[in-house]
Amino acid sequence: MQLNDWLIMKQELLLVAIILGILVVWLWKEPSNEAWINGMNLVLFFNIIGGLWDFNYGTLFGESFLVTPLILAEKTILNLAVWIIALFSYDWCKKANNLPEFYLLLITSLLGMFLMLSSQNILLFFLGLEMSSLPLAAAAGFDFGRRHSPEAAMKLVISSAFSSALLLFGISWLYGLTGTLDFSGLITHIGHSPLSILAFLLILSGFAFKISAVPFHLWTADVYQGAPTAVTAFLSVVSKSAIFMVMIPVLYQTFEEQIDIWYPGLIILALASILIANFFAIKQLNLKRLLAFSSIAQVGFLLIALAAHTQEGATSVLFFLLIYLFSNLAAFGVVSVLSAQYGIEEISDLSGMYRTHPFLSWILTIALFSLAGIPPTAGFFGKFFLLLSGSSGGNYWVIGIAAANMVISLYYYLRVVKTIFLNQPVQSLPQHTLSFSVKFALLFCAVGIVLIGFFGFLYEHLFQLLTGIN
Amino acid sequence: MPNLYTILTILLFPLVSFLLLGLTSRRIPKNLAGLFATAMMLISTGASLMVAFNYFTLAPATGHAGNFETIFRFPWLVFNEKLSIDVCIVIDPLTIMMLVVVTFVSAMVHIFSLSYMKGEERFTTYFAFLGLFTFSMLGLVLAGNLFQIYICWELVGVSSFLLIGYYFTKPSAIAAAKKAFIVTRFADLGFLIGILVLSYYGESLDIATLLQRLGNSSDGRFQSASAASFLGLSALAWGLLLVFVGGAGKSAMFPLHIWLPDAMEGPTPVSALIHAATMVVAGVFLVARLFGMFILLPDVMSVITFIGLFSASFAAVIACTQTDIKRILAYSTMSQIGYMMFSLGISNSGDHYLGYTASLFHLFTHAFFKSLLFLGAGAVIHLVHSNEVEKMGGLRKHLPLVHLSFLIACLAIAGVFPLAGFYSKEEILLAAFSANRFVFGVALLTAGLTAFYMFRLYFLIFWGKPADITPHHHGSWLMSIPLLLLTGCTIVVGWLPFGSHISWGGITHHSTINWLFSAAPLGISAFGIAIAYIKYARPSDRTSSSDSAQNWLYRAAFKKFYIDELYLWITHSILTPLVARPFAWFDRNIVDGLIHVVADGVASCYYLFRKMQSGKLQDYLLYFMGGIAAWMIFFFYLWK
Fold this sequence. Notes:
The complex is a heterodimer.
Chain A: H1 3-8, H2 10-28, H3 33-53, E1 58-60, E2 65-67, H4 69-88, H5 90-95, H6 99-118, H7 122-140, H8 148-178, H9 183-189, H10 194-210, H11 219-226, H12 229-254, H13 259-282, H14 287-307, H15 311-342, H16 353-356, H17 358-372, H18 378-390, H19 396-421, H20 436-452, H21 456-465
Antiparallel strand pairs in A: 1-2
Chain B: H1 4-23, H2 30-58, E1 69-78, E2 84-91, H3 93-116, H4 123-142, H5 146-164, H6 171-202, H7 207-214, H8 220-227, E3 229-230, E4 233-234, H9 235-250, H10 259-262, H11 268-277, H12 282-289, H13 291-294, H14 298-319, H15 325-345, H16 354-384, H17 400-414, H18 420-435, H19 437-462, H20 477-492, H21 515-536, H22 542-548, H23 552-558, H24 563-609, H25 617-638
Antiparallel strand pairs in B: 1-2, 3-4
Helix pairs in contact in B: 1-2, 1-4, 2-3, 2-4, 3-4, 3-11, 3-16, 3-20, 4-5, 5-6, 6-7, 6-9, 9-12, 9-14, 11-15, 11-16, 14-15, 14-19, 15-16, 15-19, 16-17, 16-18, 16-20, 17-19, 17-20, 18-19, 19-21
C-alpha cells in the first residue's frame, strides 16, 4: 500500500494511534486524572482537525472499505460529539477510578463505528457494530460503586448480545440466499422471497434495537439511568447517529428492492416510538430517564423522514442528527455536572435551580426548547425539515400524528423548565465554579443550537454530499 | 437629495442611546447616562437641522409633499412578485419638517430633564425610554412603507406606555398607562385593518406606489376599490376611514381622546415631548402622508373635518373648567390638533389646498409653543409640588423667566401678532373661511375660547394671591436653556416661508397678512384675554370665580361631559355581561375542558403501557421477540 492508500483510512488510524498512545502512557507512568483529562481533551480536538487535515477518498481491502466525502463528514460529526462529551465530563472524570480505561472504551467503540460506516461488506459491518457495542457495555458499568451502573451494564450486554444474535441470524440467511457478503452483490442477488423478507426483518430489528425504537427500546431507560452520564450521552448521541448514518445507504441502496417492506416497517416503528415514548416521558421523575424517552421520541421523528426515501429525507435526517447532537449533549452536559457535583438526577431536585445556577439553567432550557422544537432554536428547523420531507410521500396522517405529539412533548420538556425557574427551591445547592472545559462545551452547544437553524448552507452542503443516495 | 448617512445618523443615534442605556442601566453613573443621551440627541438634532437647511435652501424646488425621494431601499420580505415588503426610507418636505420638530423638541426635553429628573432612581431608564420614543417617531416619519409605519406606530405606543407609567409605584400612573395603551391599541386595530384593505386593493404596501394607484382616479385599482361597496361605503372609503381611526386614536380625537388627559401622569417633560409636540400629531402626519388618497373622497374628508372641528371646540370648552395645570394643557393640545385635523379635512375645497399647508404649519408652530408651555408647567410644578392651579398664584416673582416664556407661549397659542401661532392659526382660519363658513364660525369661536382658557391658566398661576411657598433655589441653568430656545422659536418660526416649501399639488402659498381678515381673530382673542383678566387676574375674585359658575354646563364640562363614565358604563354593563362572560365560560368549560380530556387521555395511556417497562430483562427480550413476530405476521399475512 502506498501513502495515499493509508490516507483513506486516516481517521481510523488516528483513533488506533490514540488507543496505543493511551496504553503506552499508562504503562510508562501514572499521570493524575487532571493530566489525563486535559491531555485527552487536546488529543480529541486534534483528532477532529487531524482527520480533516490531509485525507483521501477511495476504497481499500478489495473494495470492502469505502470513504466518500459523505462518510468523512459523518465521521467528523461523531468525532466532534466525542470531544464535546469528553469536555463536559470533566467533573465526573476527576473522581473516576481507572480513568484511562474510560477513554479506551469510548474510543474503541468509536473506532468500531468508523469501520461500520465505511464497510462495504456485511461481515465487516457486523464486526464494526460489535466492536462499537461491547466496549459500551463495559463503560456503562464504569461506576460500579453505584447500584444502578452494573445493572445497566448487564442489561446492555445481554440485550445487545440478543439483538446481535438475531442480526447475525439474518445475515446468515442472507448469505445462504445470495451467496455473497458484499453490499454491492446483495443488491443484485437479493430476491423477494419470504425467506429474504425474514432475513431483512431480522437485520432491521438489529438496527431498531440499536436506535432503541419501540418495541425494541425497553433496555434504553434502565441503561440510560444507570450508566455514567458521559456514557449515556455517548449511547444516545454517538451510537444512534452512527446507526442512522449507516441505515441511510443500507436501506436506500442495498435493500432498495425491499422498500415495500421497510417503508411500512419504519412508519410503524416511528409512530409506535413517538407515541409510547411520549406516554412514558410524561410520567418520568428522573431526568436521565426523561431524556431516554425523549430520545426514543426523537428517533420516531427521524424514522419518518428516513422512510421518505428521498434525497431530502436523507439530508434532513443528517441535519437533524447534527442539531440533535448539540441539543442532547447540552442537556446531558448539564445533567453530568449536576450528578457529578451534587448527585442530583431527579427533576424535583432542580426546583428553583435558576436562583443559584443561572448559567446551567439557561443552557438546559435552551437545550430542552430545541429538543421540543420551539423556534428559533435549531430543533424547530430540524423537526420542520424532518416532517416536511416525511410528508413528501403524501401520508399526511402520519405527519399529523407526529405534529400532535410535538405538542404533547412540550408538556414534559416545559415541566422541567418550570421546575427550574418557577418552583421554590427545596434545598439550596452550594455554589460551584464550573471548570473552563465544561463551560466551553456547554456554550459551544448552546451557540450551535441557536445558530445552526439559520445556517441554511449546512443543509445545502449535506444535500450535495447525499447526491445520488437513492 | 439628503445624504443617506446623515439621515441614518438622525435616525439611529437615539436608538444607540436607548440600547446602550437600556442594556447598562445599572452599571453606568447616572450623570454620564443623561449626558450621553443628551449628546446623542443633540447630534441627531444638528444633523436634522443641517439636512433641513440644505434641503429647503439649496434646492427649494425639489418638490412638494407627497413627491417622494427614496434614499434607501432593501427588499425585506419578498412573498411573491406582487407582494413584497421593502424597508425603505423616503424623504419629502413633510418628512424633513417632522425630523426637525421631533429631534429639536426631543433635544430640548432631554436637556430639561437632566435637571428636572435629577435624583430619580430610574434616571437612566428614563433617558433610555426617551431614546426609544425618539427613534420610533423618527422611524415613523421616515418610513416609506405602510407596514413600516405600523411597526413604528406601535413602537411609539409602547414607549408612550412606558413613559406614562414611569412612576409605576403610583396606581393612577399604572391606570393611565394602561388606558392610553388600550385605547390607542383599539384604534390601531382599525389602522391595521385599514392598511390591509388599502394594500389589498392597491396590491402594494409601498406608500408611493399606493398613492400612484389609489390616489389616481383613472387607475384601474382605484376604480375597483371605489366600486366595491360595503355597508353603503366604498372599500376605499372604508380603508381610509379605518386608517383615520388609527390616526384619531393617537391624535386623541373625539371620541378616542379619553387617554390624553390621564396620560399627564407621566413626568412633565415627557408630556411636553410626547403628549404635546410629537406623538399626538402622528395622526395628522398620517393623514397628510396619505393625503393623495384622502383627497379623492369628499365623504371621508368631511368626516375628518367634523371630527376635528368637534374635538377642537369640545376640548376647548372642557379646558375652561379644569383645575389641573397639565390637564388644561392636555385639553388645549387636543383642541389644537382638532384645528390641524379639520384644516386637512377642508383643504379639498376652497383655496388650492391652503388647508393642507395651514394644518402642517400649525403642527410645526404648535410643537414649539406647546412644548414650551409644558416645560414651563414643569418648572412651576417643580416649585409648587402640585398640579392644582388652586395652590398656585403670584408666581411671577419666583419664576421670572418661566413667567415670561409662559406668557409668550400663551400669546402664541391665543394667536396674537406677531408670534408663531398667529400666522398658522390665521392661515387655518383663512382656509376655513374660503371653504366653509360654518367651520370658520366655530373655529373662530374656539379661538376665542382658547385665548380665554390659556389666560385663565396664566393668570391663575402667575398673578392673583401669592401662594405660600418657600422660595428656595429651584431649577438650574439647564432648565433655562430649553425655555429660552423654545421662546425664541415661538417668536420667529411664524416668519418662515412655510407655504412655499410644504404644500400639496405643487402650489406655493405666500403668507401675506390681510389686516382686514385678521381683525376678527385678533379681536376675539383680545376679548377672551380680557374676560380672563377680569375674572382671574385679581386676587379677590379667586374663590368666587369657581362658585359663580355652578350651572349645569359648567358641571358637565368640568366632568369632561361624562365621556369616561360613558365608556365605563359601556364596558361594565354591556360588554362584560354580553360578550366577556360568555367567552369566559366558553374558555373555561369548552377550551379548557378539551385540554383536560386530552391530558387525561394521554396520562391514562401511560397506565395502559406501563407494565412494559417492568425492569426485568427477560420481559424486555420477550417484547423484542414479540416485536419481530408481530412484524412477520404483519408482512406475511396482513400486508398486501
